[in-house]
Amino acid sequence: MELVKDMVELDKDKPGRREELLQAALDLFSENGFKGTSIRDIANSLGVSVSVIYHYFQNKEGLWSELLGYSVKALPAKLEAAMVGGGHSVERFRRLLRVHLTASNYYLKESKMFLSSHERMSVDGNKQSKEIERRILDIYVSILEELRRDGWVKTENTKILAFNVLGVINWQLRWYRPDGPLTGDQLYEEIIAFILYGAVGVPPGR
Questions:
Q1: How many whole angstroms separate alpha carbon 28 and alpha carbon 158?
Q2: Angle at 92 between CA 172 and CA 128, to 5 degrees
Q3: Number of helices and strands in the chain (H, E)
Q4: Host domain of residue 25
Q5: In sequence order, what are the residues at sequence separation of 6 or more whose Cβ sits closer than 8 angstroms to the Cβ of residue 77?
Q6: Average pLDDT, the chain
Q7: Higher-pLDDT residue of 5, 102
């Protein structure tokens, strides 16, 4: 029994084990969502016991939160920074879209993980996720309101328009493949041109 205990302790303290657990959790969360992934699933994917996971993280939500901490939680601040600077409203909207697309695809799995269901998370965990979503939505509503005042957007329902724009940005995370015919930059320009022409009425290239 002491030998088994010693082996478990060695496995817990293996160099790089924490990063392995995070990567395994990320792979499973991005495919199956929070609800569809269990602590045992994560442990089994690495061939370790669940006690190894609890050695590093309090629970499944602790894994989820840490993965979001270095990726999606920082997204609102990046979007807000993209809005700062010169240029008219269309230029800043284009810059916002570019930053959002680039960040979402850089953290592709984390973004897909975040967009999956938050069901069965704690009240606090769900509140954190909703707060990120609210901040992102508010940023888009703000720039679309400015575009409306400048005469580019005709509808007064800028919140609905913001949901539609975010739907376009988020949906491409599901279908885009890096080994496809378009590079990331080409994809971004296609999506930005679509949003600008369809939502704002600005011809591509303007």
A1: 35
A2: 60
A3: 11, 0
A4: 2-66
A5: none
A6: 85
A7: 102
Q: Taking 90 as the threshold, does the pLDDT of residue 183 lie above it? A: no
41, 104 contact by CB (below 8 A): no
Distance of CA 106 to the CA centre of its chain: 9
In angstroms, the CA 173 to CA 56 distance is: 30
Q: Considering its fold, how many domains does the chain have in total? A: 2
Query: 28, 50, 66 — which closes off a domain?
Result: 66
| pLDDT at residue 7 in the model | 40
Helix H or strand E segment including 141: helix 123-149
Q: What is the CATH number of the domain that holds 186?
A: 1.10.357.10
DSSP 10-48: HHHT-TTHHHHHHHHHHHHHHHHTTTT--HHHHHHHHT-
Residues 80 and 132 placed together within one structural domain of the fold: yes
81 shares a domain with 6: no
Residue type, 166: L
Identify the DSSP state of 196: I
pTM value is 0.80
Give the pLDDT confidence score for residue 4 in this predicted structure. 37
